[in-house]
TrEMBL record:
Coiled coil: none annotated. InterPro entries: Arginosuc_syn_C, Arginosuc_syn_N, Arginosuc_synth, Arginosuc_synth_CS, Arginosuc_synth_type_1_subfam, AS_cat/multimer_dom_body, Rossmann-like_a/b/a_fold. Its EC number is 6.3.4.5. Keywords: Amino-acid biosynthesis, Arginine biosynthesis, ATP-binding, Ligase, Nucleotide-binding. Pathway: Amino-acid biosynthesis; L-arginine biosynthesis; L-arginine from L-ornithine and carbamoyl phosphate: step 2/3. This is argininosuccinate synthase. It comes from Coccomyxa subellipsoidea.
């Protein structure tokens, strides 16, 4: 009980486990009492910090959750709230977010178009690594969080805010990604995570709070919980609802960026993508900005039923989570990139990249975009891309992306050497005998020594 211990500290579970006869002596030791005092001081400091917040920058979408958070911050911390809404190509009208913020009394409202920066400085560098988390996930949500965090910190410095806040829950990866970004860019920033502080731990409580404060509740938010979605120019994700059963097949009307492969055209679509130093720069010979290029790839891929994946992933916070993703343009881009690398990169470069990729993908997934190890890996990866320039021809058909051609001025493919016809002495097949004999030496030695 609180009265018995003087303070219900963060180590309460340990106290309960030690509360038997053998634990009583441990609980009374000076070391344990000191730990209790430290935890009590932490809780007291947390309460005092609420009084110290003067201004907070909130990552704000204008949806129900962040609208509730906005009001909760104003009431709980009695501070000024600055809203920041990022346009990452999620396909939503953002001006309603401005009007909602104004109606809530917000004076400083930031709505920034970050689409080009998102693709050129985050998506493309990640794709140069051919990053796939657990072999499947193209990291569409993960890669957006560092940019949002970066811009929040920039705004905090600009307006003199001493805190930032986000709407990620205490169960997911995004809380980690946002906050690692914040602390990596401004170590002394204060972070407010409402979902870890308030008692609005259910949809009904959230709606009741919203209604009590005059916050409009969209009709779609009532009744059964909707799919939880996250969208940007690279992808859209779906979680929750019937997807919480990993055996349940997704309903077709859930998807928004692609037709089903069954409904895709019966005629194949061909396209060519030009690359310069590892990055796509043109489609069918037309030069495009990074964001425009990805937008166009999304359209043609979605029309051909490309880019859907259904996975159970390992969250950084420890649990398994089922998610369904649509990443149409990214799916094409990954296939095309590997094709141009296949003729431009040396075997050693290719294989080393493939070894580094899972570690790189894990760093991005877990939120370590601004870490020194991610930057080090990026430098190594980018070094391999200096001669990764060329064109890839693709065939799109009913959910499939097929490479049907590739060329490069730096191609390492030599048709004369690879040919089954007379190569004019470029490759002496007799040399292979010595090569094989040396490679087999350790295997033969093992066989003799171990009696295989």
């Amino acid at each position: 009980m609180p009265g018995a211990m003087g303070c219900v500290d963060a180590n309460g579970l340990t106290q309960a486990l030690l509360a038997g006869k053998r634990g009583a002596a441990l609980l009374a030791t000076p070391a344990h009492q000191n730990r209790r005092r430290v935890h009590c001081q932490v809780r007291t400091q947390a309460a005092l910090d609420k009084k110290k917040i003067n201004k907070v920058v909130l990552a704000y979408s204008g949806g129900l959750d962040t609208s509730v958070i906005l009001k909760w911050l104003q009431e709980t911390y009695d501070c000024e709230v600055v809203t920041f809404t990022a346009d990452l190509g999620q396909g939503e009208e953002l001006e309603p977010a401005r009007k909602k913020a104004e109606a809530a009394g917000v004076k400083d409202i930031f709505i920034d178009d970050l689409r080009e920066e998102f693709v050129s400085d985050y998506v493309f560098p990640m794709f140069r690594a051919n990053a796939l988390y657990e072999g499947v996930y193209l990291l569409g949500t993960s890669i957006a969080r560092p940019l949002i965090a970066k811009r929040q910190i920039e705004i905090a410095k600009q307006v003199g805010a001493d805190a930032v806040s986000h709407g990620a829950t205490g169960k997911g990866n995004d809380q980690v990604r946002f906050e690692l970004g914040y602390y990596g860019l401004k170590p002394d920033i204060k972070v407010i995570s409402p979902w870890r502080e308030w008692d609005l731990n259910s949809r009904s409580k959230l709606i009741a709070y919203a209604e009590s404060k005059g916050i409009a509740v969209p009709e779609g938010k009532r009744g059964d919980p909707p799919f939880s979605t996250d969208a940007n120019l690279l992808h859209i994700s779906y979680e929750g609802n019937l997807l919480e059963d990993p055996w349940a097949e997704p309903v077709q009307d859930m998807f928004t960026r692609s037709v089903s492969p069954e409904q895709a055209p019966d005629k194949a679509t061909y396209l060519e993508i030009d690359f310069e130093k590892g990055d796509p720069v043109a489609i069918n010979g037309e030069k495009l900005s990074p964001a425009t290029l990805l937008t166009n790839l999304n359209k043609v891929a979605g029309d051909n039923g490309i880019g859907r994946v259904d996975i159970v992933e390992s969250r950084f916070v420890g649990m398994k989570s089922r998610g369904v993703y649509e990443t149409p343009g990214g799916t094409i881009l990954l296939t095309a990139r590997r094709a141009v690398e296949s003729i431009c990169l040396d075997r050693g470069e290719l294989h080393l990249k493939d070894e580094l990729m899972p570690r790189y993908a894990e760093l991005v997934y877990n939120g370590f975009w601004f870490s020194p190890e991610r930057r080090a890996l990026q430098a190594a990866i980018d070094e391999t891309q200096k001669f990764c320039t060329g064109t890839v021809r693709l065939k799109l058909y009913k959910g499939n992306v097929m490479v049907v051609g590739r060329k490069s001025p730096y191609s390492l493919y030599d048709e004369k050497i690879a040919s089954f016809e007379d190569d004019g002495g470029l490759y002496d097949q007799k040399d292979a005998a010595g090569f094989i004999k040396l490679q087999a030496l350790r295997l033969r030695t093992l066989g003799v020594s171990r009696g295989v």
